[in-house]
Amino acid sequence: MSLHTSIKQKAKTYSPYLIQVRRHLHAHPELSFQEIKTAAYLSEQLKKKNIEHQTGIVNTGIIALIKGKNPDKKCILIRGDLDALPIDEKNKVPYQSTQAHVMHACGHDVHSTCVLGAAFILNELKDHFEGTVKIMFQPGEEVLPGGASLMIEAGVLENPKVHAALALHVFPNLQAGEVGFKSGMYMASTDEIYLNIIGTGGHAAMPQEYNNPLLIASEILLALNKEFPNQATQKIPTVLAFGKITGNGATNVIPEQVNIEGTFRTMDENWRQQAHHKIKTIVHQVAQEKKATAHVEIKRGYPFLINNEALTLQTKKTAQDYLGKKQVFDLPLRMTAEDFAYITQQVPSCFFRLGTNNAANEFASGVHTPTFDIDERAIETGAGLLAAMALTILNE
To answer: Most buried of 126, 127, 264, 347, CB within 10 angstroms?
Structure first.
């Protein structure tokens, strides 16, 4: 029996159990860096299989080690994330979130379940690979500074030293049983932009007495939009977008100040730094021209995510062998962000997409929406494929 056949059989056998794990996680979501019960539940599952692991890393993180023959030869990391989002779920399903305004709307329950399944499979196949598989369940993927960065600071890439890393993400654009890959630069860096524009407030009927910060804010936004047009017109993919503007005035009250919040995303670190400077310069210049004051805060977020070309080629080939070539797709570059990027900056990595829709398009809702859900057949695919990829890398 081939290893792929063995993995498929084990993934199929574990599938009903893994679906129940995913449903438990989905029904009991926890917000970023608050995943205490989630971590405890996953630790219980690892204990059932006598898988060596350490808890309490960055408070709720878990590291498990599965040692094959000659465990010091090579180490591969497989990442799962634990946190949910502040969203009220609208799905009417038996495993609907039991927590008000908390939902696994980004599929982290699926990710962790697939990684757990891969751990179970690899634990049964320890005699079939050389090296060590390091399983990481990380907190706080959704918020800065990102749990992956804190896990790195805590030493997750050492003892044993990680040589390669894998992670997957739910993807409703593909069906269950399908996966997608993008070699090289794949996802953008992300920074949070906070602008505070201070003018002079007053009675709306007396324009000679006020300097309207709303109008000044509008001119600043137009100036920034002119300097940073949409990404299709730029050599370096770039997005500068503002989604929130607050001026607490009224129909006849001009506020003293306006607050604006947005995001900046790109794919080049040098340009990222230059763009930060440009944003600050434009904001201050317009404010000064309009005799107002401006404060600019740029919170540096996740770096860009880059998939190692050789590793991605290898894992894509494994996926084709495991699932069939027609089930494996090439993906375009994305301007979304992911804290697994911190790991891709440190070790050769592959971050790929796991199809979660079905032929009837019943699971087409996007991530970060209150109706996101998956075709649970995707879990069997994700668990088995992660195990197959790990074995291929370790046995090369």
So the answer is: 264
Considering the domain architecture, whether residues 34 and 96 belong to the same structural domain is answered as yes
Question: Per residue of the chain (396 residues), what is the pLDDT tens digit?
Answer: 689 999 999 999 999 999 999 999 999 999 999 999 999 999 999 999 999 999 999 999 999 999 999 999 999 999 999 999 999 999 999 999 999 999 999 999 999 999 999 999 999 999 999 999 999 999 999 999 999 999 999 999 999 999 999 999 999 999 999 999 999 999 999 999 999 999 999 999 999 999 999 999 999 999 999 999 876 567 889 999 999 999 999 999 999 999 999 999 999 999 999 999 999 999 999 999 999 999 999 999 999 999 999 999 999 999 999 999 999 999 999 999 999 999 999 999 999 999 999 999 999 999 999 999 999 999 999 999 999 999 999 998
How many domains would you assign to the chain? 2
Which among 250, 265, 300 is the end of a domain? 300
Concatenating the DSSP letter of every residue in 65-131 gives EEE-BSTTS-EEEEEEE---BS------STT---STT-B-TTSHHHHHHHHHHHHHHHHHTGGG-BS
> Of 275, 300, 325, which residue constitutes the final position of a domain?
300
Range of the domain at 198: 189-300
CB 118 within 8 A of CB 129: no
Which token pair is 370? Answer: 């209150």
**Prior bond to 160 cis, omega within 30?**
yes
Cβ atoms of 167 and 112 closer than 8 Å: no
Closest CA to 128 of 5, 34, 230, 271: 5
Which tokens is 196 given? 């505070």
